[in-house]
């Protein structure tokens, strides 16, 4: 069987077509430079590709899409280049098993199997069934080392990884498709629907959550207005290392997230939004105010950038699309604390909260209608801990704001999902509304 091989700068997922095809020589140069490019494998006379591979060594990433005869993506494989340059980790895969030739791509009724692997041997296989019985169940995949890892082929020596899926029993003969006229570099941007390497969760408009008058929506309430942040108190960090963690999790190795800050005392506040909603039990429309985030304010200088804080075991090279890192909680609780006094602060927190010793020296309950709930203070160091409520259990990212000079200006934890900004109202529309 003959398989045609073509190269391009990008692959348009929506159009199922390459963008800006290129020659083999140009693709080889991009590969050597670590720049992204795609490889398209086609069978002559078949409209849909057999498979498409996206390579971006700069992102430590190689991705693979397999297509069926109907042009539906049936398998996704995410491979990562880590410390050993000779092999790739089969980091993440999803297989869709269409039960009908007419079933739409990614139909909700389509069964699928997801395999999530880490380089230390851990992993999870999740099978999602549809139809009668439905549901999903997860197991730990028992895979050999050669099933977790793949030898890294040299440029132009990749096999057709989907050969077995397409029923090929003999190695195919590859033929390069030549490019009649290559587009000039910089000739426009790739389409918004182009395939790109996975990105971890992004911060969103955090600054705007603390800017009164900004209009947002959470998808459920059509319009919410940011009001003045509530200043709750201060927190002392004499060690110069801020801890952000869940105080209810076993911390044998210390707090999950730490952020260096200048030693000092910092303001704690809450971002809040006000909105109207129909209250069923009152049978009336009411106005309420709810918090969206908590913040340790290091500086009044506005943050120019926001970044997700990482724990000691977090490796950005392994992050899949929209993955988060952060602290875990099983009791809907997080805390800001002085990392240098972590152990005594946590011990006081547990004694005061769990054992009910609210009269302990160095422990106090906060009763101000705030998300912040308890404070503990280590008398020896002066370091403090302040706990706050989240809206549920799970993992919460910690966002670190930095000014243009790179210095930390604030540390924020969202207690709700990041809302979406609404367009600003101009004076005409505001006057009309009034």
Structure characterization notes:
This protein is mostly beta strands and 434 residues long. The chain has 2 domains: 2-176, no CATH class; 207-425, no CATH class. 8% of the residues lie in helices and 41% in strands. It has 4 helices and 28 strands. Strands 1, 2, 3, 4, 5, 6, 7, 8, 9, 10, 11 and 12 form a 12-stranded mixed sheet that branches. Strands 19-26-27-18-17-14-13-28 form an 8-stranded antiparallel sheet, with no helix packed on it. A hairpin with a 6-residue loop joins strand 13 (215-217) and strand 14. The protein starts with a strand and ends with a helix. Residues 427-434 have low confidence and may be disordered. InterPro entries: DUF4241. This is DUF4241 domain-containing protein.
What portion of the residues fall into strands of 2 or more residues? 35-45%
Please tell me what the overall shape is. Answer: elongated
Low-confidence stretches: 427-434
Quaternary structure: single chain
- Amino- and carboxy-terminal Cα gap: 72 Å
Pfam families: DUF4241
Biased composition (Basic and acidic residues): 119-130
Protein name: DUF4241 domain-containing protein
Organism: Streptomyces rochei (Streptomyces parvullus)
């Amino acid at each position: 069987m003959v398989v045609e091989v073509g190269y391009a700068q990008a692959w348009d997922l929506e159009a199922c077509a390459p963008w800006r095809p290129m020659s083999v020589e140009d693709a080889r140069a991009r590969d050597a430079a670590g720049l992204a490019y795609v490889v398209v494998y086609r069978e002559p006379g078949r409209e849909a590709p057999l498979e498409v591979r996206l390579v971006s060594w700069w992102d430590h990433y190689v991705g693979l899409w397999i297509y069926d005869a109907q042009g539906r993506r049936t398998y996704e494989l995410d491979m990562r280049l880590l410390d050993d340059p000779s092999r790739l980790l089969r980091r993440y895969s999803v297989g869709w098993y269409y039960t009908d030739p007419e079933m739409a791509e990614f139909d909700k009724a389509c069964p699928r199997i997801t395999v999530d692997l880490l380089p230390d041997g851990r992993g999870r296989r999740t099978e999602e069934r549809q139809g009668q019985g439905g549901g999903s169940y997860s197991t730990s995949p028992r895979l050999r080392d050669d099933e977790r890892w793949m030898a890294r082929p040299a440029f132009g020596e990749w096999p057709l990884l989907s050969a077995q899926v397409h029923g090929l029993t003999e190695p195919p003969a590859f033929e390069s498709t030549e490019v009649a006229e290559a587009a000039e570099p910089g000739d426009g941007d790739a389409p918004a629907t182009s395939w790109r390497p996975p990105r971890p969760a992004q911060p969103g408009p955090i600054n705007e959550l603390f800017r009164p008058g900004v209009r947002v929506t959470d998808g459920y309430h059509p319009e919410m207005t940011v009001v003045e942040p509530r200043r709750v108190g201060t927190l002392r960090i004499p060690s110069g290392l801020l801890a952000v963690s869940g105080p209810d999790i076993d911390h044998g190795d210390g707090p999950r997230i730490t952020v260096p800050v200048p030693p000092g005392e910092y303001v704690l506040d809450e971002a809040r939004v006000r909105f109207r909603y129909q209250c069923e039990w009152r049978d009336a429309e009411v106005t309420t105010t709810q918090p969206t985030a908590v913040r340790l304010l290091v500086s009044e200088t506005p943050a120019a950038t926001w970044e997700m804080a990482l724990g000691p075991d977090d490796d950005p090279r392994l992050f899949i699309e929209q993955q988060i890192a952060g602290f875990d909680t099983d009791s809907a609780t997080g805390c800001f604390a002085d990392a240098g006094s972590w152990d005594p602060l946590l011990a006081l927190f547990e004694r005061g909260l769990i054992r009910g010793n609210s009269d302990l020296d160095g422990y106090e309950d906060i009763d101000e209608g705030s998300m912040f709930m308890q404070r503990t203070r280590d008398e020896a160091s002066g370091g403090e801990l302040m706990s706050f409520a989240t809206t549920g259990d799970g993992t919460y990212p910690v966002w670190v704001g930095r000014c243009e000079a790179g210095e930390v200006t604030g540390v924020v934890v969202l207690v709700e999902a990041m809302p979406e900004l609404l367009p600003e109202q101009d004076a005409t529309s505001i006057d009309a509304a009034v």
